[in-house]
Amino acid sequence: MNEKLAVVLVSGGMDSLVTAAIANEKHKNLAFLHLNYGQNTEEKEFECFHQIADHYKVPQELRKVVDITFLKQIGGSSLTDDNIDVKKYKGDSDEIPDSYVPFRNTHIVSMAVSWSEVIGAEKIYIGAVEEDSSGYPDCRPSYYKALNALIKEGTKDGIIEVITPVIAMKKHEIVQKAVDLKAPIEKSWSCYERSDKACGECDSCALRLRGFQRAGLEDPIPYLKRPQYS
To answer: What region, left, alpha or beta, does residue 96 occupy, with left being phi > 0 and alpha being psi -120 to 50 degrees?
Structure first.
């Protein structure tokens, strides 16, 4: 197990939960970073972040919450712009959906890199998933290859690296990985629209439910609707 501190980006969603579980297997010491960017389910995600941090016994001084609500001011996404409705899942498509938050992951990783330089972390874990991301350009392996090259050029020691342990996994494989690592799935939240009960119909809910259905398991979080997607 690596003795060096690692930063994990934890949104509160299932992908970030499993990423945290994987990082926990590899590193003795973890720091958790959460970004509030004005998303619809900000309060629920914040709650899940702390519940996951409690589960992995991350000390309070190694939990960082950063406000980047300027992304809501910029808008352009159904996750942050009140004038754009969250759409129902319409099946797999090559078209980038309007739930894409423009250049979001670059802002998020930049915060993580800055914090890593301050606290001496060399690895940053992020739960980006190519299949699950509906074609988001900032969830592609090529993006993280370019981003790591930029980080190497733009940091003091050039040793910080972004790790994407679930990027090539299918959703049902992530579900199974959560079970294998005994990750607290019930403490995660994926819905784009609601915080009381997951809607079951947005892109994120649909992909999550499909993953559970293909894994032959029941998602423990509450849903308003549970359509069959598999």
So the answer is: beta
DSSP 3-state of 221: coil
How far apart are the C-alpha atoms of 216 and 221, rounded to whole Å?
16
Confidence band, pLDDT 50/70/90 cuts, at residue 50: very high
DSSP structure string for 40-80: TTHHHHHHHHHHHHHHTT--GGGEEEEE-THHHHH--STTT
Residue 133 has pLDDT above 60, yes or no: no
Question: 10 near 187, Cβ under 8 Å?
Answer: no
DSSP-based three-state secondary structure for 119: helix
Which CATH number covers residue 78?
A: 3.40.50.620
Closest-CA residue to 175 (of 10, 7, 13):
13
Q: Which domain holds residue 152?
A: 6-171
Q: Look at residue 98 and tell me whether its pLDDT is greater than 80.
A: no
Global confidence as pTM: 0.93
The 30-36 sheet, strands edge to edge: 63-67, 30-36, 6-9, 123-125, 161-163
HSE-CB of 218 using CA atoms within 13 angstroms: 3
- Domain total for the chain? 1
Confidence of residue 132 (pLDDT cuts 50, 70, 90): low
Among 37-41, 155-159, 220-224, name the one with the lowest average pLDDT.
37-41
